[in-house]
């Protein structure tokens, strides 16, 4: 099971916003784009979706940009991916299988989906930030 590019970019953008969250300073799209390698136009669309989902807010003006609306430890990855991918809508779209084999495959996909959702529900945005910071410390040790 893979994260879509859309979800991956959304997570990268939210990690960048999380790093600035404690300062209370908004971060501009061009800065996130440059740091994370996300195309500006695509990032604008993702942030608009995340704003509608209640994860970020925009601030206008010379010192404008985007901010998280909640603490990073209060945002689960399941919340984010569900917002971006529309998990609830996709779950309702599943057709009932026409054959026994189809039912077996459908049951397997339900189990895979539940396992993935369980992992995403346990992990928060803060966990990703903490993992990033730990990895950055390890990388710094190689240069000493």
From TrEMBL:
GO terms for molecular function: DNA binding; DNA-binding transcription factor activity. One of its GO terms (cellular component) is cytosol. The keyword Signal does not apply. The keyword Secreted does not apply. It holds the Pfam family Rrf2. Keywords: DNA-binding. This is Transcriptional regulator. It comes from Phormidesmis priestleyi.
């Amino acid at each position: 099971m893979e994260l879509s590019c859309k979800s991956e970019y959304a997570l990268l953008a939210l990690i960048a916003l999380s790093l600035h969250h404690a300062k209370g300073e908004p971060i501009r799209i061009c800065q996130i784009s440059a740091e994370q390698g996300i195309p500006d136009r695509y990032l604008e669309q993702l942030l608009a979706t995340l704003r509608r989902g209640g994860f970020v807010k925009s601030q206008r003006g010379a010192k404008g940009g985007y901010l998280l609306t909640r603490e990073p430890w209060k945002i689960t990855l399941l919340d984010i991916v569900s917002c971006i991918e529309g998990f609830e809508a996709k779950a309702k779209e599943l057709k009932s299988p026409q054959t026994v084999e189809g039912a077996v495959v459908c049951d397997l996909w339900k189990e895979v989906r539940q396992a993935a959702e369980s992992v995403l529900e346990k992990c928060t945005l803060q966990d990703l930030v903490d993992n990033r910071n730990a990895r950055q410390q390890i990388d710094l040790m190689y240069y000493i």
